[in-house]
Structures are given as C-alpha cells and as structure tokens.
Amino acid sequence: MTPATVIDIGRQAVEVTLLVAAPLFIAALVTGLLISIFQAATQINEMTLSFVPKVIAIFVTLIVAGPWMITLLTDFMTRMFESIPALIG
Description:
InterPro entries: Bac_export_3, FliQ. 90% of the residues lie in helices and 0% in strands.
C-alpha cells in the first residue's frame, strides 16, 4: 500500500463524513438562525429556546435524510471491503 493510496482512502473517508454530516449541520444552522432572529425581534433571551427546536430539526432531518446517509455509508464501506484484496496483494 503506497502513501498515495492511504491519502486517497483518507480523502474519501473525509468526503463521506462531510456528506453525511452536512444535512444535520445545515438543519441546525438554519434553525438556530431563525430562532436568533425571533429572539432579536421579541427580545426574549432564553438559552433553552434555541436548543429544543434545533434538536427537533435535527431529528426530522435524520428521519428524512437517514436512508440516504445509510446508503452512502454502506456503499463506502462496501467499496473499502472490496478493495482489501487489491490493497494487500
């Protein structure tokens, strides 16, 4: 196994990680932004007000995008396991 192969596998792993995490991060970011605008408009400064909607948004996003995430992860792992013989020999 060459250093270039190791770097390529690491790059693929980081790409898959970012693709899987992106929908959850985006949901939390958008929800936090909307709640912050609401808090600024109403001058309600309650810290827990932003926590519960973010958790709900992440949960809904996980339900909606979960099958796609699982497919992405299983495809990556299948490719990794299938490439083991080529990497060893």
